[in-house]
Design goal:
The structure holds three protein chains of three kinds. By secondary structure, chain B is of the alpha+beta class. Chain B has helices at 19-27, 46-51, 72-76, 129-133, 139-143, 160-167, 203-236, 243-251, and strands at 5-9, 37-40, 61-64, 82-84, 91-93, 114-115, 122-123, 149-153, 170-171, 184-187. Chain B contains eight helices and ten strands. Chain C is an all-alpha fold. The chains are: A alpha/beta, B alpha+beta, C mainly alpha.
Chain lengths: 733, 252, 247
């Protein structure tokens, strides 16, 4: 703050030096205090400053950033002004990336478990020892249980592609991602309606219904930013959420919808739109399949009927339907992202997709957009080996109608491992993923862990999953890494390529998972499959983009000026009928409802509450709660409970409450909120940790994953996390 | 015209993501437990929401030191360590001159200042002076997802901030008894409006100006009068009336 | 009158006196210059600007003031420790009073210095008429010791004031190094200012009495040479003179 340049002597340093003299006379006993002062900037030469590009990794958005490095220390992360997808911004988490890099709690060396799992006793190994040990363990499991005896769970990361590749060359089909706790039901529904999963052109839309999504807190770029711009330009935002989130607060209309009844609302919208012929009939004839069947089907779903289910007044439903149709095609039922809520989640999203279809908004400004061409090429990798003794299929195969093979279902995989059916899975390689906090029913995950012989986690912090592992390997943060190129879909903002090069060298002994696989491959006779560098890999990816390397180097991002609207001109839809399927032919053949049939959510037992899940803008899911900066925004999670419901239980604001379900329990503070339904409670994820290696949050709050019971969407196997009923009692003042 | 740096904020676009608070904290090494900026929100009116289904009515208000034109914090500072910089209109703190007495802290109606626990002097938003010196905008402005904060010289008609001020109705958040003429302008309306407190100049400083200064003047004045009287007697009255006579007398 | 001189002040006393005087001038000038708040500045902002200009910046001025203060307090602290005997003697002297005699001295000397010897005589006659004793009525100024009561009454607040100023100054100097409770710093600022003001008020009289007043010329010179004429000593500090003659 001082206006003056460096001075040879400042008052503080002068006092420091004479501190001994003055201190002796006044505060002899306090002398050490005088010397423990804030370090002064050294007089003399200014810091050597470099600005380096990277993309953020504090969440999945990968916002472009410019890191300011002074004398080898990263002092600030600023947004890359040229980064269109983020509209040149960096959120609270993005700024807190420095605290991830310099986290005193971060993993530093390979650690081998001593004592029991969860005791937290570790032995430091050298990398050679650690990798030898891992290779040995995986070999043992492969020999006894086939290569499919090892489960691989890659998190959402630019190096996760190498986890998949390693699993492939190692020979395991059992690769399960985070997506089965997140968006698989949405993907399923939209794939089965439009033939592909769309992006929303929020910037240009005029009417947006957001059900269950919370874009002003669960930030997605450019959606979250464009939503505000669209609002300023007159877009109407209607939010359906049992909770008064920040999105609900900033909406034009908010309805505290009864949880799990969204399908009733959307089928009623379809009822009005078709009944009053508010859709473009020419468009429907050309592009929609099943309008007549749908029209018949939704006759039963009147707004009056829907009001009884979702508790939104019929006249509002009718009015909204009319307004929505009037704004079409620049009107969107927002597909959302995390749809891991109900056992009929896919069908709920089918209902939403169907209304989108009726609005004729596909491939239009302000509507749903097809993926844009990014232009990256697949890398040239050798053919992976074939292992004869391998089983036929994934361990979780067949447990859901239409599981995504590349993503699997963590819930079903977990069940398979516990049951050891269809075959035993005994090893687990976890990369940058934390199912003990992110997946419902923590105790079941712990049970799964008991059934495993060897667990290896690669992470940057001692997450709960790392804490329960046998071998923990330290990974560098994104600011220390070189990564392959990655394509990003930015809807109407852009289609772009990003990559990473180290901003600072890797701290401690952390090593990227790519290097770990290279080393493991050497020890497992698979070296030929990892015989390349990231640079070579990247070059192959960029080979069809001649300007790619230059743009990445000079701008921190490469833009492909690919088509935005009209991508489907002259093309057919990737469905059986080659049209947008309001009626899904394939479902009918498989014995799945071809059009969503309303099923009321499971009845809530009296005296209990339904638990819902949600996010905020300063934590990413169940990571970053321990981040020194972000931690200040919320030192612990609390239970949102309606004041009327709380009063009946004798609970006051700030009281400790105990919350129990069939899966587990937790103790945390009550947070009385009028902005939540009386039948619903909510808590944020990421607290109540097992790991004592997360020193800022250990002992704080309760664990959402422990309390949630594990249900799954019947069609996609996506976790269903809003099906849990909980009992809440007062614990003390 | 002299530069006058200020901020024009469209608080209706704020989503309370805390980006500005985080960016500022990192950029200015603000210690844990303290903030140079903030986001306020009014209490939601759920009764109104219950009555008219569908109404939402949320609002968030980002803010920071208002770099006021008649700052009460400057009024409270004994050493002039905090001052209004005539060059650019900002209110600054000279770290080398501040003795950390904290008098300015309760004197701010907005609670914009805090005492740095390690440096033990006062700290507050300085519109990221070090960033401005290298041609960058303040960290909070740059990082905001919705670009709610617009920063610039409101005396320069070509600046975005000046243009926004000219083309829009704006409002400022002011305590009725402490109008310090703040320089953060909120477009159209903002909420909450009633959160600033009355500026309190600490008692020792008030006593100094109101009691001690006149008291010291009075005492010095009385003694000076005494000296003047003696001086007068020494140089105006005749010689035989001075001490030499007395000495001679005493000797006898 | 003889021309004989008696030793009144040691070289150390002389040094300490002028050191104190110089320090005070410096600290007063810089200290007032540090008040940049027009509401609080007793002299006027012109003084502040002058001092800022002289030192180049406010922080240089503050640094100078603190260094000056440390040297001033430090020297006296060292003296207090090393010269404890002289200090004790000095303190004994300035704290010893004979109330009636000293009060009379104050009144008579005061009248004489402002209104003159004639007025003093007149006052005595008036008092005698009302029944005052000849002793009291006489225009003769009562005897005094090494220091007259006027000097003692300035020395006492100077010593106390000096300690208060030093301590409050140290609190302010260390405020951004040590203190977490700022209320103590704020009060220290106020107390520092008031105490300086009070002592300064007394300083005006001291400077007049010591350096300007006619009959005090030998005393002023003794602050350089260390010696006073015997006659002067006998007349102005009789009780001390008697002691010295005996010893």
């Amino acid at each position: 703050m001082s206006l003056t340049a460096d001075k040879p002597i400042s008052r503080r340093s002068f006092l420091k030096w004479t501190g001994a003299a003055t201190a002796a006379s006044v505060t002899a006993a306090q002398a050490p205090v005088l010397h423990a002062l804030v370090p002064e900037k050294k007089a003399g030469a200014p810091a050597k400053v470099e600005n380096r590009f990277s993309v953020c990794d504090m969440c999945l958005n990968k916002c472009g950033l410019i890191a300011r490095v002074e004398d080898g220390v990263v002092t600030k992360l600023d947004p890359n002004p040229k980064f269109l997808k983020s509209r040149g911004m960096l959120c609270a988490r993005g700024n807190a990336g420095i605290d991830q890099l310099y986290d005193p709690d971060r993993l530093k060396y390979p650690l081998l478990r001593k004592g029991q799992r969860g005791e937290g006793k570790w032995q430091r190994l050298s990398w050679d020892q650690a990798l030898d040990h891992a290779a040995e363990q995986f070999t043992k499991i492969a020999e006894k249980y086939t290569r499919c005896g090892v489960l691989f769970t890659p998190g959402s990361d630019m190096q996760s592609t190498f986890v998949r590749w390693f699993a492939e060359v190692f020979g395991s089909y059992n690769v399960t991602t985070h997506e089965s706790s997140c968006l698989l039901s949405r993907n399923r529904a939209y794939l089965d309606t439009f033939g592909e999963v769309p992006f929303s052109d929020i910037l240009h839309t005029k009417y947006l219904i957001m059900a269950g999504a919370n874009r002003f807190e669960a930030l997605i770029t450019p959606d979250s930013i464009d939503l505000m711009t669209a609002k300023k330009n007159g877009c109407k935002l209607v939010v359906l959420d049992p909770r008064y989130t920040k999105t609900a607060a900033l909406a034009d209309e908010w309805y505290a919808i009864r949880p799990g009844t969204d399908m009733a609302f959307f089928m009623a919208l379809a009822h009005v739109i078709i009944g009053e012929k508010l859709y473009d009939q020419a468009y429907a004839a050309e592009k929609l399949y099943g309008v007549e069947q749908l029209g018949e089907h939704v006759k039963q779903y009147s707004p009056e009927w829907a009001e009884g289910e979702c508790e939104i007044p019929a006249k509002e439903i009718r009015r909204i339907a009319r307004e929505l149709a009037a704004a079409a095609p620049a009107a969107i039922i927002y597909p959302g992202r995390r749809t891991s809520d109900y056992v009929n989640s896919t069908q709920i999203r089918r209902a939403m997709a169907i209304v989108n279809g009726l609005l004729g908004n596909w491939d239009q400004p302000g509507g749903l957009l097809a993926a844009r061409q990014v232009g990256l090429s697949g890398p040239e990798l050798p053919d992976s080996p074939f292992y004869e003794d391998n089983p036929d299929d994934r361990a979780d195969h067949g447990r859901a109608h239409m599981m995504f093979d590349e993503e699997g279902s963590f819930k079903h995989m977990r069940d398979a491992i516990i049951e050891q059916k269809p075959y035993p899975v005994k090893g687990w390689f976890a990369y940058k993923i934390n199912p003990l906090q992110s997946v419902a029913n923590r105790n079941k995950t712990l049970q799964m862990i008991e059934n495993l012989d060897f667990i290896l986690t690669v992470d940057i912090a001692m997450s709960d999953t790392a804490w329960m592992s046998d071998l923990v390997l330290p990974a560098p943060s994104y600011l220390e890494r070189q990564d392959p190129a990655s394509g990003l879909q930015g809807s109407s903002a852009c289609a772009c390529v990003v990559t990473r090069d180290p901003v600072v060298p890797a701290l401690f002994e952390s090593k990227p998972v790519f290097w770990i696989f290279k080393e493991l491959a050497k020890r497992l006779d698979l070296a030929e499959y990892f015989d390349f560098t990231i640079e070579e890999y990247r070059k192959q990816q960029l080979k069809k983009l001649p300007d790619g390397e230059r743009a990445l180097r000079e701008d921190g991002v490469y833009y492909n000026p690919s088509k935005l609207y009209g991508v489907y001109e002259g093309r057919v839809y990737k469905t059986l009928s080659k049209k947008i399927e309001l009626y899904n032919k394939r479902y009918a053949d498989m014995g799945v409802d071809p059009m969503p049939i309303y099923r009321a959510p499971r009845r809530k037992p009296s005296g209990k509450f339904r638990m819902v899940v949600g996010r905020n803008a300063y934590f990413t899911h169940c990571t970053s709660q321990n981040n020194a900066l972000l931690h200040e925004f919320m030192p612990e999670n609390t239970l949102w409970i309606n004041p009327k419901a709380a009063k009946r239980l004798g609970i006051r604001d700030g009281y400790m409450v105990e919350i129990t379900s069939k899966a587990g329990k937790g103790v945390l503070k009550a947070n009385l909120k009028e902005g939540i339904r009386e039948d619903t409670v909510y808590m944020l994820s990421g607290f109540g940790v097992l790991s004592q290696g997360l020193t800022n949050i250990y002992g704080k709050g309760a664990c959402m994953a422990e309390i949630l019971e594990d249900y799954a969407d019947e069609i996609s196997g996506n976790m269903a996390m809003h099906e849990t009923f909980v009992k809440v009692i007062r614990k003390g003042a | 015209m002299k530069t006058k740096l200020a901020m024009v904020i469209d608080s209706s676009t704020c989503i309370d993501c805390k980006g500005c608070m985080a960016a500022c904290k990192v950029e200015n090494k603000v210690p844990a437990g303290h903030w140079r900026n903030w986001i306020k929100r009014p209490e939601a009116n759920f009764i109104a929401m219950e009555k008219a289904a569908g109404t939402a009515g949320g609002h968030f208000q980002p803010g920071n030191c208002m770099h006021c034109d008649t700052p009460t914090c400057v009024q409270a500072c004994p050493t002039g360590a905090t001052y209004k910089d005539e060059k650019d209109g900002t209110v600054q703190v000279n770290d080398e001159l501040c003795i950390g007495c904290g008098s300015c802290i309760p004197a701010c109606p907005y609670g914009a200042r805090y005492r740095h626990p390690q440096k033990k002097i006062v700290d507050k938003c300085d519109f990221c002076e070090h960033r401005r010196l290298r041609g960058d905008l303040p960290a909070c402005v740059v990082t905001c997802p919705t670009k709610a904060r617009v920063f610039g010289d409101i005396n320069d008609p070509k600046s975005d901030a000046a243009r926004l001020l000219k083309q829009n109705k704006t409002t400022r958040v002011i305590h009725p008894e402490s109008d310090t003429e703040p320089n953060i302008y909120y477009l159209n309306a903002t909420a909450p409006m009633d959160w600033p407190v009355k500026a309190k100049i600490p008692t020792p400083i008030q006593l100094w100006g109101n009691v001690a200064k006149p008291l010291v003047w009075a005492l010095v004045g009385i003694n000076a009068l005494g000296v003047l009287a003696m001086l007068g007697k020494q140089f105006i009255l005749p010689d035989d009336d001075n001490q030499e006579n007395d000495q001679r007398e005493g000797q006898q | 009158m003889n021309g004989r001189m008696i030793k009144r002040h040691s070289k150390l006393s002389i040094f300490l006196h002028w050191f104190n005087a110089a320090s005070w001038m410096f600290l007063l000038a810089t200290g007032i210059g540090l008040i940049k708040n027009p509401d609080l500045q007793p002299l006027g902002m012109w003084w502040t600007h002058l001092m800022w200009g002289l030192f180049g910046s406010g922080e240089n001025l503050l640094l100078g003031h603190i260094i000056g203060g440390i040297i001033w307090a430090g020297v006296f602290l060292i003296y207090a420790i090393l010269g404890i005997k002289q200090v004790a003697q000095f303190l004994r002297e300035i704290f010893s009073y004979s109330p009636v005699r000293d009060f009379m001295w104050l009144v008579k000397k005061g009248v004489q210095m402002t209104l003159g010897t004639r007025a003093l005589k007149k006052l005595g006659e008036m008092l005698e008429k009302r029944g005052a004793s000849p002793e009291i009525a006489a225009p003769r100024i009562p005897e005094q010791g090494f220091y007259n009561v006027g000097q003692k009454l300035f020395a006492v607040p100077s010593v106390f004031g000096g300690i208060v100023i030093a301590v409050s100054g140290i609190i302010m100097a260390l405020s951004n190094v040590y203190f977490t409770n700022t209320a103590i710093v704020r009060w220290a600022i106020l107390i520092h200012f008031i105490t300086v003001g009070l002592v300064f008020a007394g300083l005006l009289i001291h400077i007049y009495m010591a350096a300007i007043a006619a009959g005090e010329r030998p005393a002023f010179i003794s602050m350089f040479t260390g010696n006073v004429p015997e006659d002067y000593a006998r007349h102005h500090h009789r009780l001390w003179y008697e002691e010295v003659k005996e010893g």
